[in-house]
Amino acid sequence: MTLSPVRPRPAADAPHPAGAVRVPGRTARALTGVVAAGVAVGVGHLVASLTSPPASPLIAVGSALIDAAPTPAKTFAVRLLGNYDKPVLIGAVALALLVFAAVLGLLAWTHRRVAVAGIALLGLVGAATAVYRGGPVDAFPSLVAGAAGVAALLLVVRRSTSSPRPAPATATDRSLGTPDRRGFLATLGLTALVAALAGGGGVVVGRVRSASALARRGAGLPTPTSPAPPLPAGVQLPGMTPFTTPVDDFYRVDISLVTPQIDASGWSLTIDGMVDTPLTLTYDELLAMPMIERDITLTCVSNEVGGSYVSSGRWLGVPFSAILEKVGVQAGVDQVYSYSLDSGYTASTPIQAVSDGRDAMIAVGLDGKPLADARGYPARMIVPGLFGFVANTKWLERIEFTTYARRTAYWTERKWATDGPILTQSRIDLPKSLATLPKDKPVIAGVAWAQHRGIAKVEVRVDDGDWQEASLATDGGIDLWRQWSLRYDGPAGLHTAEVRATDATGATQPEARTKVFPDGARGWHQIQFTSE
Ligand SMILES: Nc1nc2c(c(=O)[nH]1)N[C@H]1C(S)=C(S)[C@@H](COP(=O)(O)O)O[C@H]1N2
Ligand SMILES: [Mo]
Questions:
Q1: Which residues form the Oxidoreductase molybdopterin-binding domain (predicted)?
Q2: Yes or no: domain 240-413 corresponds to CATH 3.90.420.10
Q3: How far is the CA of 310 from the centre of ligand 2 (A)?
Q4: pTM, whole model, 2 decimals?
Q5: CB-based pocket (< 6 A), ligand 1
Q6: Separation CA 497–CA 485 (nearest Å)
Q7: What atom in ligand 1 is closest to the CA of residue 301?
Q8: Are 161 and 179 in contact (CB under 8 A)?
Q9: Could you tell me the pLDDT band of residue 62, with boundaries at 50, 70 and 90?
C-alpha cells in the first residue's frame, strides 16, 4: 500500500479572500433569475392593465401562440382541456419562462452580460409580439417590463457581492466587498415581493376596470319591435337541463386570451363591400333600428358527441333583413365576411343564410341584458342553423358583403370546413353517465338539436334491445333544441343506453363516429347507468 500525498482542500466555511466574487449557491442564483423575470412579467402586466390589457407581455405571447398553433394541436387542446385551454396555455408559457429565467440566474454571476441580455430579450420578444398584434404603442408595457427585469437582476447580483460598508478597493475589482448573505436574501425577497405586487396589481386593476365598464353600461336596451313569442311551458321537462341556459352557464368558445372590453361610445359597425350604400352605425344608431327578439340555440363545431358546447338564449338584435334593405347588396355576392375587433378573427357566412327569411341578426342583447363582454359586447352576429365559427362573430367591427373567391375566414385558413351547417345531434342528460336511475322515477331524458330543420323523432336503445321512440317535449321552434324522455322499465343492473335523433327532413344521425375536425362530430351518444 502506498500513501499518496494529501492535497490541502479549502474548508467549506473558509472566509472569502478579500476582493473575490462571492457566488451564491445554485438555488439562490436560479431564484434570482426567476425573480427578475417575475418583476418583468409583473410590471409588464401592471403597465398593460393601465394602458392596453392585451399588450401585457405574457398575454401577447400566449395569444400569438394560439394563432400560430397548428390546427390539430388546437383541436386537441380544446378536446382535452375544454374551457381550461387558456389557463393551461398561460401556465405553459409561464413554465417555459421559469426555466429560461432560472438558467439566466445561474449565469448571472459568471456571465452577467449574458443574463442581462437574456432578460432584455424577454422584454423585446414581448414588445415585438404586442406590436405585431396591436400597434406601435403596445410595445410600451414590454419595454418597461424588460428594463424593470434587468434592474431587478442587477440589484440582486450587486447586493450579493458588495457590503453596505465601503468596500476595500482593489486593483482587480472595485465593486466587491464583504459578502453579506442576509442582505442578499433580503434584497431577493423584496424584489420577489415587488414582482408579486406588480402582477397582482395588474390583475386587480383589470378586474376593477371591467366592473366599472359593466356598471356604466346599464341596462338600456330598446324594446323589440318584434318580441319573441312566449316559450310554451311544455318545452321544459321537470328535473332536466334548463331549456334556456342560465347566462353564466352558457358555453363559451373563442380565440381571445383576454376578454375584450369595448367601450360602446367609441365603437361603430361598418357595413360595406359589394353594396350600393355602405353604412357606418354607432352603437346608438344600431339601437335605434328595428329590433327582433328570438330564442335560438347555439352550437359549436367543436362539440364532441355528448358534449356541452350547446346553449340556448333569448337574443335581441337588428334583423339582417333591415340591414340588407339599407345597404342594397349587389349581384354576385355569395358571402358575408364578418370581422371581429379582437385577434384578427373573421368568419364566412353564406349570403343565403342571412337573406332566406330566417332570424339572422346583429345581436346586442341576451336574456334581457346587453351582451356580456365574453358574449361579444357591444354587438355580435347570430345566425340560426349554422355552427358558431361560421356565423356568430363576437365583438363585431365590420361586415363586408363579398365573395368566397375574394376572402377566406380565420378557421377556413386553418383547414376547418368553409360551410358549417349544424349537424343533428342528441344527448342523454339523465341519468348522468355511470349514475343510478332511481326506482321511483325511472326516466331516461335528454336533448336533441338540428337547428333550422327541427327534430322529428328521438329513439333510445338500451343494451341490445330494440330502438324505442322517446316522447318529445313541446316544440319551441326549429331554431331551438328539443327535450325528450323515455320511461325505463327493464331489469335492474348495469346497462348501456344510446340515443339517435331524426331531423325534420327525415335524416337520422349516422352511427359512425367522426372527429369534430373539420365539420363537426357525428355518432350516437352512449352512457352506462345502473337501474335499481
Ligand atoms: N370574435 C370571435 N367571435 C367568435 C369566436 C371567436 O373566436 N372570436 N368563436 C366563434 C365560435 S367557434 C363559437 S362556437 C361561438 C361561441 O359563442 P359563445 O362563446 O357566445 O357561446 O362564437 C363564435 N364567435
Ligand atoms: Mo365554435
A1: 258-407
A2: yes
A3: 10
A4: 0.77
A5: 250-255, 298, 300, 340, 342, 345, 375, 388-389, 392-395
A6: 12
A7: 14
A8: yes
A9: confident
